[in-house]
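Review session, final week

We close the course with one last complete record, chosen because it touches almost every idea we covered. It is Putative transposase, a protein from Hyalomma excavatum with 601 residues. Go through it on your own first, then we will talk.
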Amino acid sequence: LQDKACCLLFDEIPLKESLMYDQSKDIVLGLSDDGNSRTNRMANTALIVAVSGISRRWMQPVAFVVSHDATPALVVRQLLFALIQQLETKGLLVKALVCDQDSNNVSLLKMLVRSFHEPTFFVNGRKMYFLFDTAHLIKVTRNNLKGNKLTIGSEVVDWKHIETMYETTRSADRTSDAPAELLKTKLVKKLRLQHIRKMSSTDMAVKYATQIFSESVSTALLILMAIGELPADAKATAEFVERMDRLFDCLNSSAVKKQNEKMRYAMSDGSEHQSFLEACITWISGWHFGGPRSRQPHAIKGWQITIKAVLLLWIDLKQEFGFSYLLTRRLQLGTLENFLATIRHKLGSKEAPNMCQFMDSFKNFWIKKLFRLATQGKREATGAFLANIEEALAFMPLSSAPALSRSRRHESVCASVQVPLQESTGITCENVVYHITGTLVKDFLNLRPVDCTCHGMLLDKGGGEASSKRDKFFALLKEDGVAECLFSAIAETAEECLNYMKELDRCFNEEIAYIIHCTNICRYLVQVMPKQPDLFCSPACNSKYLSMFCHRRLCWHISFANKNVENRPSRSAAARKISKLSNLSAQIPNVITTDNKVRET
């Protein structure tokens, strides 16, 4: 029974905006898809949901949705409730939801939980608990402390005390024989500048926060205060650091038995965890960052909600499932974040894989996870759990794209349409149309049946006089090597065929904005495209030609959309700095020239 208790972990990963056509399913991948509806906006975020064991250590990703920007809280709620119900039918009972403190997750909390004093909600009459990731909470607390003083009752916790401690220990004279100088050189050897300064690369790393909130830092603060290097009010900072160290150990326990004075062992009936956590709820409720009118961070409520949820969950697990102890590390996002790091590692540590790369890595991890778990101990039970998960999700559709028909053509029109690159007009357009038409006709004729007579109507019978010579410049430049005759790589098409190609392209541009997010997209385009029976020997040949055109034109449209994304100016800080440096380097020659002219004058 204990093995059936599990929790759902969910987190987001950024995606690179990119489209790809899946010919086997006749669908465009890379668009926003929440499982119930699909739009034609490019997805740049993926929300991954994984199920994780509480009594035993195992984790398996079970679902993901992609969206443009963050996934809305309502969509997350619908997805989680659907997964909870499906997992329950296979014997897995979800008892907790674990996530970070993104704004959408805070909105989800308000949507599910009625009172922060009891962070619970019900699904099919079964009580569940909402928790925030402890590692995320301690990082946010450290970041807020860097920018603001923390008032707790009459005491003030100041980050400057930690900065002074670091500077004092690093500036100590290592050649001196004075006891005070020798003592300072022995303190907080693990700390580096990354721990103290505010850096984007380290602000979201857990180890830099936990190494600050540690017993060694608390001891160093007290020692420096005792020898007069720190003022007396640094005692509040030292006590805060020591208490945060114990709180993190309590919510990150991984050992069943107590091994030392640390609280890194499992929570049980006779342990000190419950009384300590109850006291921490009252202690944290007195936190206040900044001045009297400063807006307080969500981390204050987040700590209280998480601690209360852990206490209530422990009672529930003990009474309903017969738990004798609880390892709180299994109520964190660590395993899911390791999975996301594995995806980035497989792609060369890319921060933002595209949709197809993400899906391939997701499937690869799923398969390897199943095979690896099957060789470990208790293979039958673990294998059965994962088999149940696979069966529970087997009937879920891969995509929520609606099947397309003529009657549904105008049912869903998105407000934001991905616009392709501006197509050229005039002589450039005429050359491109001639070359593309010739290539398509040649490939079509190579695949035609033996009894097909379409070549007599599609090809130019006048030896190239029907079309303007200026239309053939691009086709001539595309010739590979010295051919026996000109335009050997393409078919010289008739004027009627060129006009038909222009009509098909116009019709495609009218339709694509409304249907790109739907499935059966090429099949629908073949149905709505204008027919030209005079150019083909049979309706079957006409349909085959249209099918080839729709597939290639859709791929070109996707290529244009992807190039639009690549050419879009980046909004990152690094990109802005590079742009400033480029502008500055471009202005330097002008400044030098002006300066030389002034000197000559």
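Two points worth writing down before the exam:
The longest helix spans residues 539-567.
The chain has four domains: 2-133+333-392, 137-289, 413-567, 571-601.
Good luck, everyone.
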